[in-house]
């Protein structure tokens, strides 16, 4: 029995969060799961290098540790972000010696497996062992969890599986369009119709328009949405979470995975959740809760687009290089769900537009989907390789809603929810090698969105299922996790993404050449062209100097169909504990005032859809960047678009962020 996970999170709109429980380790056939971790010290480490870990001499200790690699017994020294680990062989026994970014205390841990011992600086951290640890309760993570448990039932095997989710509840951080292709769900849970999945509005009408300022021109619709459904993905994720729990998956909403755990062979052995109740100044508050280590034979990263741990893992193991992948490219989607007049509502009606209000060099478009109960999902997607630093995606969305073909639908309605999230657009060219020692990356963290379809849910789910099957093989059949990669390349995901590969890069030549080329690819060549176009520059490199552009003047919101940011933020139910260290880090705090402001006219104050970044005058009248981290929607645009890649998005304490329920 393990004492554990207890947290209470208060937000302005909700008091929630989940876990205040005692987690019991039920019997398992996995000996790893029973590997007992205690905090007792079993020192066989050489006395000459044995520090007094209970003392407070950290600075001495860590300068000492930096010296240790020179010791002949230490065979490996790895720097990881703010931390490092040392692998040593002492008396014929392997040991790990490590600290991470949340270092606060020290202790030894007892043997994990194979004679390996870990030494961790986080003495108060509990450890729970699982067979499979999954980060992120989105479509990918939950599909993996469900598939694993199904395989357990089919083969009468008991594997322990957990999913850790930073949202206060499953679905709270999920935002999507969403026109849903049920292919993967049919494979995963064929009885979903009878089991009450919130997938019940079939696409009834599918239109595609090219917009100019005052007109809409109908184009042949390339989306082929027959058999698809208009859904709320946050609701589907919520339902899938319940299905996973029914099958025996432990889900921990309200906990952010902030750190990767490695063993001495540089293999991932799980994650640690972020400490809770740490004040801005780093001190512990009354409600302090130490992070928890969730250790697994296999760790699956399902954090969605631009996952913070996934990006670290990709860099650490050079997975892009191994997969011969190009960089990832992204777009930012800004969305509202409206309740409109009954007379205007057509359940299942789907509309996509290209063109206005975006300029011809900026790739993007809008979506408008009629859900059930008079609800309409409306949004604008703006590719983040835009050049004009004065472009403001939030304001472009407000402008879009004023179009004469759109506004009448919304007039008289009310906005139920607002949110924003990035999605990846790199497709086939940008898929990294998704397997690393100890686990794999699944879903949008790896990047399986089919851009011409504007869909990534079905591919995210399928990738989770394939990774689960590979993980099951590792734990039961002695096969390797590489099977995931092999099966991925033989699956329909690969076939789809390969066919769609030239669509998005064609738009780097502008709107009209992009439309012409993609029509040729879609209708004539059908993906069989002998070439593969490359993506242009990474998104952070595409922003032009401000002097090359004229500032864009956006109209004031009318309060009827267009709104200011604070109003929208209120509708996103976003909240973070204010007194916590900012989760948005500036690698160099001088860059905003030295580069972003003078050279690019402060683009972060425009691309952030929550106005987290604001330049305000200091006491000397100098403009200084102020970061309102508590407003953050977790969209990750800043991590992607900052011209100098100076902003690092890390997870805040669990439970904070948006509170979506119909997105
Ligand atoms: C505006 C927009 C419109 C879209 N429209 C469509 C559409 O119409 N059809 C379609 O099929 N697809 C669409 N997509 C794409 C689709 O939403 C994604 O492909 C899909 O959500 C990917 O699923 P995922 O599980 O990989 O990631 P996500 O759905 O992003 O889920 C990731 C989960 O992991 C959690 N998480 C992340 N990091 C951590 C951490 N460190 N610790 C704990 N938890 C963590 C997040 O809170 C989240 O719950 C759209 C996307 C956007 C943004
Ligand atoms: S701070 Fe960054 S992640 Fe948060 S809402 Fe703004 S752009 Fe998105």
Automatic annotation (TrEMBL):
Q: Which compartments does it reside in? A: Mitochondrion inner membrane
Q: Does the keyword Transport apply?
A: yes
* General function of this protein: Accepts electrons from ETF and reduces ubiquinone.
Q: Which GO terms describe its cellular component?
A: mitochondrial inner membrane
Textual note on the cofactor:
Binds 1 [4Fe-4S] cluster.
Q: Report the catalytic activity.
A: a ubiquinone + reduced [electron-transfer flavoprotein] = a ubiquinol + oxidized [electron-transfer flavoprotein] + H(+)
Name it.
Electron transfer flavoprotein-ubiquinone oxidoreductase
Organism, by scientific name, is Protea cynaroides
Q: Organism's domain of life?
A: Eukaryota
User: Which family does the UniProt entry place this protein in?
Assistant: Belongs to the ETF-QO/FixC family.
């Amino acid at each position: 029995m393990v004492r554990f996970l207890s947290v209470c999170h208060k937000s302005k709109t909700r008091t929630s969060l989940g876990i205040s429980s005692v987690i019991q380790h039920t019997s398992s056939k996995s000996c790893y799961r029973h590997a007992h971790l205690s905090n007792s010290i079993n020192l066989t480490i050489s006395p000459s290098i044995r520090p007094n870990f209970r003392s407070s001499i950290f600075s001495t200790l860590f300068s000492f540790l930096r010296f240790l690699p020179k010791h002949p017994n230490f065979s490996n020294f790895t720097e990881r972000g703010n931390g490092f680990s040392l692998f040593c062989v002492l008396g014929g026994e392997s040991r790990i010696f490590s600290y991470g970014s949340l270092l606060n205390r020290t202790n030894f841990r007892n043997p994990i497996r194979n004679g390996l011992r870990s030494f961790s600086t986080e003495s108060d951290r509990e450890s729970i062992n699982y067979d499979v640890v999954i980060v992120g309760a989105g479509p990918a993570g939950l599909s993996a969890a469900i598939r694993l448990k199904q395989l357990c039932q089919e083969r009468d095997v008991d594997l322990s599986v957990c999913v850790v989710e930073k949202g206060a509840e499953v679905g709270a951080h999920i935002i999507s369009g969403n026109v849903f292709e049920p292919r993967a769900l049919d494979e995963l849970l064929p009885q979903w119709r009878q089991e009450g999945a919130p997938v019940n509005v079939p696409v009834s009408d599918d239109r595609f328009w090219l917009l100019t300022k005052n007109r809409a021109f109908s184009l042949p619709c390339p989306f082929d949405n027959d058999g698809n459904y208009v859904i709320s993905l946050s609701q589907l994720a919520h339902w899938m979470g319940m299905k996973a729990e029914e099958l025996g998956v432990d889900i921990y909403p309200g906990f952010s995975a902030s750190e990767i755990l490695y063993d001495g062979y540089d293999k991932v052995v799980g994650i640690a959740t972020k400490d809770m109740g740490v004040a801005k100044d780093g001190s512990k508050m009354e409600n302090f809760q130490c992070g928890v280590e969730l250790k697994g034979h296999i760790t699956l990263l399902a954090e969605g687009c631009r996952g913070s741990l996934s990006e670290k893992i990709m860099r650490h193991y050079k997975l892009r290089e191994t997969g011969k992948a190009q960089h990832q490219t992204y777009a930012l989607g800004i969305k509202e769900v409206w309740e409109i007049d009954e007379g205007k509502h057509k359940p299942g009606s789907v509309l996509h537009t290209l063109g206005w209000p975006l300029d011809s060099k900026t790739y993007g478009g809008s979506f408008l989907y009629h859900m059930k109960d008079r609800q309409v999902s409306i949004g604008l997607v703006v590719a983040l390789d835009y050049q004009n630093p004065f472009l403001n995606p939030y304001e472009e969305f407000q402008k879009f809603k004023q179009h004469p073909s759109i506004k009448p639908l919304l007039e008289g309605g009310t906005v139920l929810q607002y949110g924003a999230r990035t999605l990846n657009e790199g497709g086939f060219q940008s898929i990294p090698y998704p397997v690393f020692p100890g686990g794999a990356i699944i879903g949008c963290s790896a990047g399986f969105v089919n851009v011409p379809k504007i869909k990534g849910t079905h591919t995210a789910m399928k990738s989770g299922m394939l990774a689960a099957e590979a993980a099951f093989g590792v734990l039961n059949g002695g096969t390797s996790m590489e099977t995931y990669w092999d099966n991925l390349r033989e699956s329909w995901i690969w076939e789809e993404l390969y066919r769609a590969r030239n669509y998005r890069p064609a738009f780097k030549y502008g709107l009209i050449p992009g439309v012409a080329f993609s029509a040729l690819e879609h209708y004539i060549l059908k993906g069989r062209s002998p070439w593969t176009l490359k993506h242009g520059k990474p998104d952070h490199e595409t922003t032009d100097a401000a002097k090359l552009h004229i500032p864009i003047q956006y109209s004031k919101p009318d309060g009827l169909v267009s709104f200011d940011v604070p109003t929208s933020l209120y509708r996103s139910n976003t909240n973070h504990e204010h007194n916590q260290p900012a989760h948005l880090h500036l690698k160099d705090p001088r860059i905003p005032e030295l580069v972003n402001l003078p050279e690019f006219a402060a683009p972060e104050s425009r691309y952030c859809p929550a106005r987290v970044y604001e330049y305000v005058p200091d006491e000397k009248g100098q403009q200084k960047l102020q970061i309102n981290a508590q407003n953050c929607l977790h969209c990750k645009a800043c991590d992607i678009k900052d011209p100098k890649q100076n902003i690092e998005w890390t997870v805040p304490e669990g439970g904070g962020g948006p509170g979506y329920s119909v997105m």
